[in-house]
Amino acid sequence: MMLTLQNSTSHPMSFILLGIPGLENSQFWIAFPFCAMYVVAIVGNIILLHVIRTDHTLHEPMYLFLAMLAVSDLVLSSSTQPKMLAIFWFHAHEIEYHACLTQVFFIHTFSSVESGVLMAMALDRYVAICFPLRHSSILTTSVVIRLGAAVLMRGLLCVSPCCFMVSRMPFCPSHVIPQAYCEHMAVLKLVCADTRINRGYGLFVAFSVGGFDMIVIGISYVMILRAVLQLPSGEARLKAFGTCASHICVILALYIPALFTFLTHRFGHHVPRVVHIMFANVYLLVPPMLNPIIYGVRTKQIRVRVIQGCCGKEP
């Protein structure tokens, strides 16, 4: 395929996304489970948002954070999946340069937002279990909104320089990206210039944002565990653990594939490319699909509202 190449700032007009190298003959069929997961993610998160918006008893910190998580999931999955399905089904491998950078921006910004919301939810669980009588006075609606705004601004301010720096650099003649979406490191590998500053900044953002969130989450759950083990009643301990189980499942679903993808991109030179690309796709699709399922099944208030809505009953 012939590409119209450079403009005055040495940017390519477009890139070629290969999809899943090594599985080209199977991509048509792989797209069906990917499409099913995407539909579940979209429908599940929209239902979650609708339930939280319409039920005023759910306008509490935990559910407001859950609404933020649902919005992040919708943006994260929708920024990659439509183009990915177009590649798999219709061989639409070409992506325009600015569309590629836009995809980079949304993927990394809302990955940061998702991590930040999970951190805020861990703090909410800590306050709810360790200071139950002061929970409503500490985490007021205004505090929750400010936390959400801070998490969003952090993502915007940290990721914007990455996109700006890449946009100012010259690219090599090859414009082929060996995966199904534009990701910062994948685009950076096509640059014909010294990228050490870009790589260093990317590592700094990843470790400072992700590392800070994981430290806060870890400390929160250590404090929660100490408080729960001091409860006199076994039933009370079980109930306290139950309120955290959903959140822990969501954290694991996000961080395990995210860490694998991040580390293999930089250090996993011996990891088969197919494995790396599949985990990169899982990282952006599975958490948005699982989050509404996990919270819908394990959270009684949401489960009841969904059942009532399906049955046409009023609460």
Helix-strand layout with pairing:
Blueprint: E1 14-17, H1 27-54, H2 61-78, H3 81-90, E2 94-96, H4 97-130, H5 135-138, H6 141-167, E3 176-177, H7 184-188, H8 196-229, H9 234-266, H10 273-298, H11 300-311
Parallel strand pairs: 1-3
Antiparallel strand pairs: 1-2
Helix pairs in contact: 1-2, 1-3, 1-10, 2-4, 2-6, 2-10, 4-6, 4-8, 4-9, 6-8, 9-10, 10-11
Fraction of residues in helix: over 70%
Structural class: mainly alpha
Described by the principal axes of the CA atoms, the overall outline is globular
Order of helices and strands: EHHHEHHHEHHHHH
How much is the average pLDDT? 87
Poorly predicted sequence stretches spanning 5 or more consecutive residues: 1-9
Sheet with most strands: strand arrangement: 2-1-3
User: Would you report the number of β strands?
Assistant: 3
Figure out the total of helices: 11
User: Biggest β-sheet: count, sense, barrel?
Assistant: 3 strands, mixed
Strand content: under 5%
N-to-C terminal Cα separation, in Å?
Answer: 58 Å
Computed over alpha carbons, the radius of gyration is: 21 Å
